[in-house]
Amino acid sequence: MPVIAPWPAVRVTAEREGTEGAAAAGTTVDHLTETYRAHYRSLLGLAALLLDDTASCEDVVQEAFIRVHSARKRVRDPEKTLAYLRQTVVNLSRSALRRRILGLKLLSKPMPNMASAEEGAYDQLERDQLIQAMKGLQRRQREVLVLRYFSDMTEAQVAETLGISVGSVKAYGSRGLAALRIAMGATA
């Protein structure tokens, strides 16, 4: 059997490599370096017309060259490299403006009312004092107050949960609150 199959495959591969080599010849790193030297200032001017910040213009142009360098295999015609760069500068400038507008919108919203660090520390101290005062209550008083005020149960629900009468819930609650006022007033 003659070995004919590999030759056409090798020929097709060589033809493809030759085609890709010719197409990629204009998009080499050397070509991009020359384009950078020749057109950096004009691209910077283009960005300056779209943006008002010099640093942002420089960033946009640098990013455009980086993106073209990354995609240089897709830019087959060396004459289109500059057009591709210009379009990239325009697109990146638009994106920068969108980010600025979004930032301005976010900054224009009023800040939520947040407690300062001192207020947070005082709140923590008050919580700690309340917990200590609750520990000093009788067991039934503590149970009634926790169920009534922290679990938001009605007096009837508390009575049913604890298996006591509604009158007892009222009495334990009243005595517990009085004891808390005294304990919290003494520590404050």
UniProtKB/TrEMBL annotation:
Q: Tell whether DNA-binding is among the UniProt keywords.
A: yes
Q: Which residues form the RNA polymerase sigma-70 region domain?
A: 36-100
- Describe the location of the RNA polymerase sigma factor 70 region 4 type domain by residue ranges: 128-180
The record's keywords, sorted A to Z, are: DNA-binding, Sigma factor, Transcription, Transcription regulation
Q: Which Pfam families does the annotation name?
A: Sigma70_r2 (PF04542), Sigma70_r4_2 (PF08281)
Q: Does the keyword DNA-binding apply?
A: yes
Entries under CDD domains matching the protein: Sigma70_r4 (cd06171)
**What protein family does this chain belong to?**
Belongs to the sigma-70 factor family. ECF subfamily.
Instruction: Return the protein name.
Output: SigE family RNA polymerase sigma factor
Native organism = Streptomyces thermolineatus
